[in-house]
Amino acid sequence: MPADIPSATDEAFWRERHLCFLVTLRPDGTPHQVPVGVTYDPEARIARVISSGRSRKVRNVRAAGPRARVALSQVDGGRWCTLEGTAVVRDDAESVAEAVRRYAERYRTPRPNPERVVIEVAVDRVMGSARPPGW
To answer: Where is the Pyridoxamine 5'-phosphate oxidase N-terminal domain (predicted)?
Structure first.
């Protein structure tokens, strides 16, 4: 069920180590879906994806401009959660360093990439069923 504020269960699910799917729209309007590592800050309601600046997902967000909408979905068995929001690409050193730090906490230290940028998603919609196993 859609919600404006994620539940504590959703927030815990986003701290677990899972890959996610990012959906962006190509300039022709067709969807582009790729697996990514995501970090989510529930207090700021910001999700972050690090990427090479030349990637298709980054080009899609840039091409869409200030109205770029994306979805991030995480699935583990019957548990799932989707974060939707407006995306921007940031390439300043401070934003990239913060995204890399968060990524390293959740996954591992990423390999060096001088072309790295971060897609920041201002989350405004949460959907899912992220109940722990056994519920």
So the answer is: 11-126
